[in-house]
Amino acid sequence: MTEVTGTARLRVRYAETDQMGVVYHGNYFVWFEIGRVEWLRQLGWSYRQLEADGIRLPVIEAACQYRLPARYDDELEIHTRGRLASALRVAFTYELRRVGDQQLLATARTVHVPLNPAGRPCRLPAALREKLS
């Protein structure tokens, strides 16, 4: 199975940090969501389009390894890779790097299951599956 990679950039906002200027750990998952959204856009899709097609992508698994702290005003790159993990699962891996020195700050993985409007597992649209296989 092929992995498709996307890249998104952001700058750490003051509100995302603690009193020491270090990013609160929960904010990383917000950034990983930004990575997923941009990954879809770079494929020519959007979450809005998936939802219009009646598909939701809830997270069923999430893990992050924090290596170095991100700090206030750092410019960051999120490298996101998505692939079909099975007929009914999509797996994403993430690398968070500081722009400039390219230091690896965190790695993560999330797994999602497409659900139809009734909340039952379903397949992704064929055109999107083709881009992931």
Describe this structure in words.
By secondary structure, the chain is α+β, with helices and mostly antiparallel strands. It has one domain: Roll (Thiol Ester Dehydrase, Chain A). The protein is built from 3 helices and 5 strands; from the N terminus they run βααββββα. The protein has a 5-stranded antiparallel beta sheet with strand order 1-3-4-5-2. The longest helix is centred in the N-terminal third of the chain and has 16 residues, at 27-42. The chain is elongated, with a radius of gyration of 16 Å. The mean pLDDT is 93.
What's the structural blueprint in terms of helices and strands?
Blueprint: E1 4-11, H1 27-42, H2 47-52, E2 59-66, E3 75-86, E4 89-98, E5 104-112, H3 126-132
Antiparallel strand pairs: 1-3, 2-5, 3-4, 4-5
Give a brief outline of the structure.
The chain has 133 residues and is an alpha+beta fold. The protein has helices at 27-42, 47-52, 126-132; strands spanning 4-11, 59-66, 75-86, 89-98, 104-112. The chain is elongated, with a radius of gyration of 16 Å.
Shape: elongated
Extended strand count: 5
Work out the strand percent: 35-45%
Unreliable residue stretches: none
Rounded Rg: 16 Å
End-to-end C-alpha gap: 5 Å
Question: How many structural domains does the protein architecture include?
Answer: 1
Question: Class, according to the CATH hierarchy?
Answer: Alpha Beta
Sheet having the most strands: 5 strands, antiparallel
Q: Average the pLDDT over all residues and give the rounded result.
A: 93
What is the structural class? alpha+beta
- Give the CATH topology: Thiol Ester Dehydrase, Chain A
Q: How many helix segments?
A: 3
- Compressed to H and E, one letter per element, the order equals EHHEEEEH
Q: Assign the CATH architecture.
A: Roll
Which superfamily, in CATH terms, is the homologous superfamily? Hotdog Thioesterase
